[in-house]
Protein 1
Amino acid sequence: MKFLDHLEEWLVTFLMGAATLIIFVAVVHRYAAGLAIPGVQDWLLSLSMSWAQELTIIMFVWMCKFGAAYGVRTGIHVGVDVLINRLNHQMRGRFVIFGLAAGAIFTGIVATLAAGFVWENGAHYAFMNAMGPVPEGMFPGPTTPDLEWQTWTVYSAIPLGSALMCFRFLQVAAVFARTGDLPHHDHSHVDGLDEVEITDEFHPHEVHAANNGTRKEGQTP
Amino acid sequence: MSTAVILFLLIALMLTGMPISISLGLTVLSFLYLFTHVPIESVALKLFTGIEKFEIMAIPFFILAGNFLTHGGVAKRMINFASAMVGHWYGGLGLAGVLACALFAAVSGSSPATVVAIGSILLPAMVKAGFPNKFGAGVIATSGALGILIPPSIVMVMYSVATNTSVGALFMAGVIPGLALAGVLGAVTWYRARKFDYPRQPKASWGERLKAFRASAWGLLLIVVVMGGIYSGMFTPTEAAAMSAVYAFIVAVFVYKDMGLKDVPKVLLNSANMSAMLLYIITNAVLFSFIMTNENIPQALADWMLGNGLGVITFLLAVNVILLLAGNFMEPSSIVLIFAPILFPVAVKLGIHPVHFGILMVVNMEVGMCHPPVGLNLYVASGITKMGITELTIAVWPWLLSMLGFLMVVTYWPNLSLWLPRAMGML
């Protein structure tokens, strides 16, 4: 479990940093290749960076799917909770569980649909190909325009990410059912300030919302 | 009929408090399953292709750039610069608060973070100088929202994604309304400070001003990198965003030295977390707008409006009311992603300029962040000032009222937004 957590964090961190670097290098390359430096210019012109845009999009789609799963764990997915926060403790708890279950159902459905889609569009062929001779009438799936990767490998971010997200929703729901705790994300966190103590016994609910920075799918009152 | 079902389903699901992205997705799934013959598998494909656009990728890059500079050290430099420039006028530190919020919000890209960063440094100083607590709270809570109008603005990228409007033109169009709104907030501050005779700061010498400017200039250059890069045609908006992220990294780590290299992975992870959440809403909002167009809902709305002889003025008024109400429940990105695909086709049919409509929506979001009962900035400000929401509501009303007035000006005076991009040949 710890391993999965770290893998998830490591993956989205890497994708974010690497995508930024790729675009940076591509832009620098575009302008540097225009400079008439003997030797260097020919070498730069011989490199093609046309794949950078496509690779960035793919990296960000992967980052989005796995980051969304990580976001469930950190409680960043916001909802409209003004209404349920006015309910009593028990009713509110039921709605929170309902919301988390709905999340698990939606991501579960998407994971299943997307897995079918990926399977139909090349994964089946690749699997058969790896196993041995491919039966008659089966074709490899489409490829991406610039990198010419198999699209099913790229698209598999959806089933994998959604399945992970589904798992995270169930995990959060289980923790909530047991302890009543929900993860919170602080949108107003700023580093490098002298610690400002945010406590106010007269308006605990409001201060709590401020600590979260925004309206969450559920809060512990 | 189908319109009613879709909207009812969406509202009902949202009110249960589930994440907005999930309620959008479930609405689409259940509608497709129950009422149409569109194959559900098409949803899976849309989930990928929904964000397969290079333009959308500007959002993670801008978030990253902002996160590198969302730091107390940067806030201090902005405040020093602002109070050196305007501190000797009436309401000195308050005016400095407006200016510092505008600068910091533009660079950091986050309203709540601006309120916290500027507020927790400036408010204690204001109280010490003799300002009443509620004056400072009112200034900071409202000025903190300026960031989504002054470029680079993530909400504007969202709007451009939802409606296919040029990001560059939107950014440029936001400049004058942004400065004007800062001016309006500053004027209210100045007027009230003069009326109640609040203290002024000693006048800073030009040497001090230059020194403060040089310290804050590194951060402010981020805006120049983005706007200059886009306007000169050197970068596409997404490339400009990536360049600004690299620039922000260099400034934060090597120039300001607010953070070390070891803090970088944490910033990357936080930005990825935030961007993934927004991109996830986008994918589901794309699905949602797909069924809206499939059911011809915007078209029907436009025909109904024209059929009843309702013109531009009524429509814009209705848009303002709807958006302000929605601002009570949702955060800006979700509002733009849900409402822009519905309202935009109607606006275009009525002859409203897409860029003007975008600026109008953004100003609406800004007002929504500061107005009671659930404006996000109010909550954050209540946290740092230890004032209740009711008390804060009274504290912000002079500024809030002038913001509403400004909203009316933006709504019915398109040239305020359109003049600059036109003059620069971007429209």
Protein 2
Amino acid sequence: MSEEAFLSPVEDTVPKTGDVAVGEDLEFQRAWWRFERGIWIFFLLLLIADLLGLFGRGWLAKAKAVDQSQTLSLDYERIERANTPSIMTLHFGRAAIQNGKVKVFVSEEIIKPLGAQRISPQPESSTIGDGGITYTFAATQPPATAEIALLPSFPGAHHFRIQVAGGQPIDGDVVVVP
Amino acid sequence: MAPFIIFRAIFGYLFLVLMVRIVGRRPGKQLTPFEFVLIFYLGGLTLTGMVGDESSLTNAVCQILAVGLCHYGLAWLRFRSTRIAKLLDGVPLILLEHRQWRTNALSHMRIQDDDVMDMARDQGLRDLTKIKTAVLETFGEISIVPADEEKS
């Protein structure tokens, strides 16, 4: 193949301003400045939403749920962040303690997608079945609390259920953001 | 999960490209300490999110490959389309022409007359009146066309 095949004549393709080839495009630049102004406002709104807890770990993310029979109240984060630890706190009512024991059922979603790492205090026993785990704690009288440390691995929305023996179930939803 | 890791790497790369683009061009041949802080800090913060808790060599290699391919893709698109080239790099902007400042461009790009004079001195020009055209290039430098060229 001849060398000419790889050559092409130089053309004056760069737009000139005056007699200098600058390649300025003011129309594009003005549109970009408008875009920049918009995106800075968008970033500011994102930061405010983050500070408020829209992406977890803030005021909007915190949730509280109480079952109808007042046996259990739950503090948790309705918006979690992937690979970020959080605590779900279970407050047991007087009716939850039966014969010095509290039995609480925790659905599978809390164990796997929401990544339950440990439960504190250590339960006397754990029983699997019915799509979750039933923990049994020794208890005296209220106030009595237990904590579940969570560490979700992947983003997504998860529905969970927690129920104390003799009480109504608490259903909740947690959204895990990346 | 492998696809999630790749997605994180690509997102991190594209997000950094966007951030560096909109943070703006600052004139100068070298990075100022101010910009060093920005570049390293942005890079470090992005790295935390990209790597997560997976510190394996496989993860690192796959993410580097993903970022490399993404960069190649952007460079290819930039070559094929002037519109994308403008989006990625911006366009040159005239700051001074025929002894008139383009005040709108100066204020939007956060450039002062001192910055233009810095570059003029670099070319041996003694004052701003010796400049015919000053152009803010896409890579952040200010090019100076001396007024003397008009006579030659």
